[in-house]
Each structure stands twice: as structure tokens, then as C-alpha cells.
Amino acid sequence: MVEDTSTAAPLKAPETGALTVPATRRGLLKGLLGALGVFGLGTFLYGVYRFLAPGAGGAEPVEIPVAEISASGTAFFQYGGTPGILLRGDDQTLKAFSLVCTHLACIVTWNAEKKEFYCPCHDGFFDAEGRVVSGPPPSPLERWKVEIKGDKAIIGAA
Ligand code: FES
Fold first, then answer.
1. Cβ(149)–Cβ(65) under 8 Å?
2. Count of CB atoms within 10 A of residue 153's CB?
3. What is the DSSP string of 72-106?
4. Which atom of ligand 1 is found nearest the CA of 119?
5. Banded model confidence at residue 11, pLDDT cuts 50, 70, 90
């Protein structure tokens, strides 16, 4: 004879206050789904945070020796997993930009002769300050703080 376990009462919690163990498969399944729900919500909220604060989220600052900046005034790096470029302007100041287009996240290229960024996906153009010149991008390229310490440029310094 097979015993029906779906109506079995859950185990009683011991007097010590320890967690109860579901006595049925249904109870175990509910517990697992609940745990997955909490994990999924946490993952979703972290994704929203990363979207709203790109380049931040605890990314370590990037150090680039100033001597590594090319003759054309550029150096490439990754900041928090995002590709970026360090540019030396005509006034010798250093500026750092994300190379991720603000339209649909294609990677933009830098044209040193024309001093502009170009996004090949939908013909988006940005000027040397990262501002939108033409095309569908809704906002400027993300710009990161640059600080000079000794012979290094520190990108993303607090
Ligand atoms: S993704 Fe850059 S213009 Fe569309």
C-alpha cells in the first residue's frame, strides 16, 4: 500500500528555534522556488544598478603611464569592463571617454585627423568632447575623471 504524503503534516520545529524542514515534496518545491525568486530579484536589481551607474559599481581606477600615450595622443584601456580611450587634447589636457555608443551600445572609433568619434552602426558622430554631433545617439559619450599622479594618468579616480 502506498502512503499519501501530500497531506502529511510538516515536521514540528524543535524547541531550540531551528528552521523547519518541509516534510512534503510540495513544501520543498515551494522553498526552492522562493529561494530562486530571491536570487533572481537580487540579480535583476544588481543589473539595474550597473545600468544606471556604468563605469562605477566598484570598478578599480585604471593607471596608464603618460609615456604610453601614442604620438597621435591616444591610449586605449578597459575601465570596469568597458572599453575606453584616453585623449590628449590640443591644450595637452587628458580626457577619458567610454567607447560605447549611447544609442545601442556599439563601439565607436576615434578619428584623430577629424577629431571626432564615429559609430558605424547607425552613423552616429560625436565631437572631441564626446558631444553628439549627428545621428541617433541620445546623449554624449560617457566621460570619466582623469587625474595625473606623477607620470601616470589615473582614470576613474574618486
Ligand atoms: S549604436 Fe551608435 S549610432 Fe546606433
1. no
2. 24
3. TSEEEEEETTEEEEEEE-TTS-EEEEE-B-TTT-P
4. 2
5. low
CA of 99 to the centre of ligand 1 (A): 11
Pocket of ligand 1 (CB under 6 A): 101, 103-104, 106, 119, 121-122, 124, 135-137
Closest approach atom of ligand 1 to CA 102: 2
Q: pLDDT, tens digit, for every residue of 53-88?
A: 555 446 899 999 999 999 889 999 999 999 999 999
Of 111, 114, 106, nearest to 137 by C-alpha is 106
Which of 15-19, 87-91, 125-129, 153-157 has the least mean pLDDT?
15-19
Residues in the chain: 158
Mutate to test the pocket of ligand 1, among 106, 109, 116, 117 (most ligand atoms within 8 A of CB): 106
Atom 1 of ligand 1, nearest CA residue: 104
Closest CA to 105 of 76, 81, 129, 87: 81
